[in-house]
Fold:
Amino acid sequence: MRVPIFESAVCVYDFEHHARFDGKDDVDKIMHKLFNLPEVLNKENVDDAQGGRALSTAHLYQTHVIPELLNFKQSPLGQWILWRIYESAIELGFDKTRNVKKLKYYRTWANKMTEGCSAVAHRHAGKDWSIPHLVAIYYLDVPSESADLVFIDNHELDVMRGEPLDSYSKDKQHKIRSMSGRLVCHDARLLHATTKHNSMSARTCLIIEVGFPPL
Ligand SMILES: [Fe+2]
Structure:
């Protein structure tokens, strides 16, 4: 579903079979394995994370390609995500200049956020970047009082990393609730952050950056 945000829009979808789908146990096992890799456990928080402890496989994106590890082409979850990315690319207008049928993965990774953690404002692409075009976030485990995603009305496209969310006035913020099974697709240039994660249980999500060739 297309959700207007300031002069732009994002797409939000909910996977109705998230609680139980073929391959869910495999997804859980693979996630557990990823977040327990020594190279993940021993890596400090990514620059975008503040407070608490945030585990990420972002630095392993070349060797640990999430859609391959989770067998996106064959699995019900993966196929659902891929179709929604395609739909959102059209909803957000990328089909006017790009061949949205030919999706190319850029970086893909998994994040695990613990109590007290939040993400400072950031973009995934700046002005005139050739890739990525779109970012898809799929929420796996989202306990209550989890960090929510917040888009910020800001057009300084050369600023890749901004400030903590509180630095932006409320009327410049648009919150999208994070929920297990929710997919949010947004233009990679949109500035966004998260609220603070207030649950003692971890919040996990997948991040898939994609690009499309010109028409
Ligand atoms: Fe992000």
Helices lie at 24-35, 38-41, 66-69, 76-91. Residues 2-211 form a domain with the Jelly Rolls fold (CATH 2.60.120.620).
